[in-house]
Amino acid sequence: MVDGQRFPVMNEKYELRRELGEGKTSKVYLANDLEVRDQKYAIKILKNDYIENDEKAQDQVIKEVAVLETLKHSGIVGIYDYGDDGKIVKASGKVKENVVYIVLEYIAGGLLFEVC
Asked: For 37, 68, 74, 98, which has the most beta carbons within 10 A of its beta carbon?
C-alpha cells in the first residue's frame, strides 16, 4: 500500500472510488477530487485494446470531447478535463501511464437507459 492509500489515484488529483460501468471501449469510475473532497466526477478511461486496435479511436475521442465542450446545458453532462497522458497509481504501488481519459460531471441515478 502506498502511504495509506486505499484507492487508485489518477494524475495525483482524482481518487477512483468504484466502477460505475463498462462498455466495449471504456470503463467509467466514480472519483473524488483529492483537493475538494465533496466534488465527485465520472471518469471515463478508454481501454488499451480499443485505442491500440482501432486506428480511428483517438479521433473519435477527440470528436467526443469537442462536442461535449461546445454543449452547455443543464440537461447535458459537463466535461472538466481530458487527455492521453493520464497516470494511475494503484494502492499496491503499481503505475499505469499514458491512460486516455475524460473527466465528466457526475450525476447520480444510474445509467440513462435504465431510467428511461
From this structure: 68
Pick the closest to residue 30 from 22, 38, 42 (CA basis).
42
From residue 24, alpha-carbon distances to 21, 39, 42, 45, 109 in Å are 11, 28, 17, 11, 22
- In the structure grid, which three cell numbers stand for residue 40, read together? 465527485
| Residue that the C-alpha cell 465520472 belongs to | 42
Identify whether the C-beta of residue 3 lies closer than 8 Å to the C-beta of residue 90: no
CA separation for the pair 61, 65 (Å, rounded):
6
Across 57-66, b (16+ Cβ under 10 Å) vs e yields beeebeeeee
pLDDT at position 59, please? 82
Which residues sit opposite 10 in a β-bridge?
14, 88
**58-91 pLDDT, tens per residue?**
788 888 888 888 888 888 888 999 998 999 999 9
